[in-house]
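Ligand-bound model needed. magnesium ion.
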Amino acid sequence: MKRPSTLYRCANCGHSEPKWLGRCPECGQWNTLKETAANPRVSKGEIKGESYSLPIVAIDPALGTRISSGNAELNRVLGGGFMRGSAILVGGEPGIGKSTLLLQVCATMETKGRVLYVSGEESPAQIRMRADRVGALKENLEVLCSSDLDRIMGAFEAVKPVLTVVDSIQTVYSPEAGVVPGTANQIKYCTQEMTEWAKSHDSIIVFIAHVTKEGLIAGPKAAEHIVDAVLAFEQAEGDLRALRASKNRFGSTEELGLYRMGEKGLAELSDPSGVLLVRREGDLPPGVAVAIVHEGSRILLVEIQALTVSAKAGLTRVYSDRIDASRVARIAAVIEKQAGLKLSDRDIYINVAGGVRLTEPGVDLALAAALFSARSDNPMPKACALAGELSLAGEVRPIRQMARRDKAARTLGFSLILGPAEQPSGKGGAPKVTAPDWTAVSSLKAMIHALWGRV
Ligand code: TYD
Ligand code: MG
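Prediction:
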């Protein structure tokens, strides 16, 4: 089929049509289609011995190298630092500390090249003040206060930054992308243009996006498809902040970065194993159990709090936004069936102290202990911490890194550690049964017996 030599491209949304139309079928705007040259197809004669593809071994491995951001928590979440030529979106609610974090990263970035901080939100004086406060005065850091895409692209050419931070993507504006600033079209268009520049110059670009409580709003959502990684910066509890990836082309999305907001900006919590614990005088109240979780590559001890009350209207509900509610419902069902403690007529509330979201299966055992303790009104022994996954049949399944979890809990003063008897063998073999240092429990019943001596 012969390709058309011209195309009609919508100035509002970028949609193209082979024929001129009065109204763009994509965005519905009138008189926005403009004639442009279609990408000419390369004819055989033009290649002159060059081929379209190239052998994989001929690709320069330096293209895939990483640069440390100088911020260990961010490096961890990214999977080992920034990948050259990558684009990253960092979302979070207003006031959470996005500008602070990224200004700090501009200063700690391990590069001799230049770094550019573009702000459409604050004045140079405000940025200087924050930089003074967090210690971000660096010779190689340039600041541009503008939301005009053309000026920003001009600065890219002039500065040739190794890293650019755009604060925020919602403020950047180009007349090319329609008349209204801040729309999804604007964000898509501007993100695309800046990302293309970064990729073609092997430069790193970070977009800051404001997100509401309900999650990403339409505009930044559209930008998610363009970037390589999407990070969420969240408030855990008080001055504690958590950073997580929801998309990461260059690493896992399991890692958790933790910070504390203080006088001098965001301090990294490099050993957070005990920061989420609640210190108490005297005995524990019923409904509280300590879980040893393995989030990403490290061990955290967290307090799980459970409350059960009789359901108001016959219809029971699970209120749990830090642990998946379906997991909570499953554990409640296992307790009812295997330990004969009725929970199906109860509303269940689950909280995780410190406010961190837990996704790891090893939290099951502590969740079960907290629920059982809440419903039976029996407090847990204070020295106890637990880890293990529960099957529907009430068996305690092996989990990864149990020995490390045991050690971390003992370091923090726990002496009664409950965990699975078996360890995963890895590589698909049968589970290993070793004599563990911790108290091995094979089932939910065995756990209850070990804790309260009955069932
Ligand atoms: P900011 O980075 O401006 O948030 P965002 O860009 O996500 O909207 O930070 C906002 C809050 O952080 C503000 O309430 C002040 C506080 N803060 C500190 O507590 N310590 C500091 O060193 C800095 C710079 C800010
Ligand atoms: Mg800000």
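The mean pLDDT is 88.
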